Every structure is written in structure tokens, then in C-alpha cells.
Amino acid sequence: MKLDAMFVLDSSSSVDEEEYKKALEFIGKVVDKMEISADKARVAFFQYAHKVTESSEIQFDKSVQLGKAALELRIANVEKSIGGTRTGTALEFGLKRFRSDARKDSSVAKYMFVLTDGESIAEDQEKITSVPKMLQSDGVTTFAIGIGDEVNQDELTRIVNGDASRKFTAANFDELNESILTKVLEKQCN
């Protein structure tokens, strides 16, 4: 399967260091199931809090240059940023990257996985409604993985354009386990 998959990770202050590492491990497990190559799966990654941490970014082409093992290691070692939660801003950054860097071939599936533990600030709420619609019209399928007790279910629903089958939650990062991984990968392959 040809796939361009983007992982968008909330690293705001409400995510503690241990939870953050577990989220990175989860992303690593998903990446490990992919066949990374120029004509198969490519991965993009970045983290955000009050802004996108561009120094954490891995672009689609870079994932192929790195290869799977180096890609997994690089993701596992991304240092956490801090700040408030601006998921709408992160979605907008991801949209720009898909438009500039994703393959244009219609046979390539395009997925964005958003992992977040909290509610975005008020200024970002409009983007959380509008940007996923733009992603969808560009052929990008969004998945929302909400973790913890502070998750705004409405926000997750808007990230996936109302499709509950692409919305996942766990009580905490410890529950980002094989069952959720399996559910996400099943959706990825359908």
C-alpha cells in the first residue's frame, strides 16, 4: 500500500515527560508496521504546544532517506517542548505540509494521526473545525487519538470530521497498547 502518514503530537505542558515518551513509543510501533520506502510508506512527524516545534519535524522525503530504523530512533529521541495547546495551528501546519510535500498520485493514501491530551485554546477552535474539512477535501484522512481525562470529545470529533470510527481514546498513555494500535492499523488498511 502506498501511504503518506503524518503524526502530529501534542507536547503541551499538561503532558508529562513519561506520558510523552509513551506517545513516542506508540508512534514508533505504528511506524514499525510500515514498509518505509519511496514507493511504499513515507512518514512525517512534528510536535506542537503553543506553536509547532519545527526543529522536531521529520518531512516525508526525510523518512525515506533515514530508513525505518533511523526514523524510529529519531522519533523516539525527540525532546519534548512545552506550552499551551494549539491543535488548530498544528492541523494548519500539517495541511500546508501535505499540500507541499505529499505525493500527488491518487493511489497514495494520505493519513494524519493527531495525538492530544487536552483542549485547545479558544483562539484555535475555528481552525479545528475548518482545517480538517480542508484536509478531507485534499484527500487526507484524519485520525484523532485522545489520551487522558482532559480530552475534549467534541474537539476529537471535529478533527475526524464527525467520523467516530476514526476517533480513539485511552484513559491514559499507558493504554496506548496493542489493542488501540490494532484498531488504528485496521482503519489505516481499510
Largest sheet entry: 6 strands, mixed
Low-pLDDT residue spans: none
The helicity comes to: 40-55%
Mean pLDDT: 89
CATH topology: Rossmann fold
Shape, please?
Answer: globular
**Total domains, how many?**
1
Total E-strand runs: 6
Q: CATH top level? A: Alpha Beta
How many whole angstroms does the radius of gyration measure?
Answer: 15 Å
CATH fourth-tier homologous superfamily: von Willebrand factor, type A domain
> What class would the helix/strand composition place it in?
alpha/beta
Strand order of the largest sheet: 3-2-1-4-5-6
Strand content: 15-25%
Count of helical segments? 6
Report on this structure:
- With 190 residues, the protein is α/β, with parallel strands linked by helices.
- It has one domain (3-189): Rossmann fold.
- 42% of the residues lie in helices and 23% in strands.
- The protein contains 6 helices and 6 strands, in the order βαββααβαβαβα.
- It has helices at 17-32, 60-76, 87-101, 125-137, 153-159, 178-189, and strands at residues 3-10, 41-48, 52-58, 109-116, 140-147, 167-170.
- It has a 6-stranded mixed β-sheet, sandwiched between helices.
- α5 links the parallel β5 (140-147) and β6.
- α1 packs across α2 (60-76) and α3 (87-101) runs parallel beside α4.
- The protein starts with a strand and ends with a helix.
- The mean pLDDT is 89.
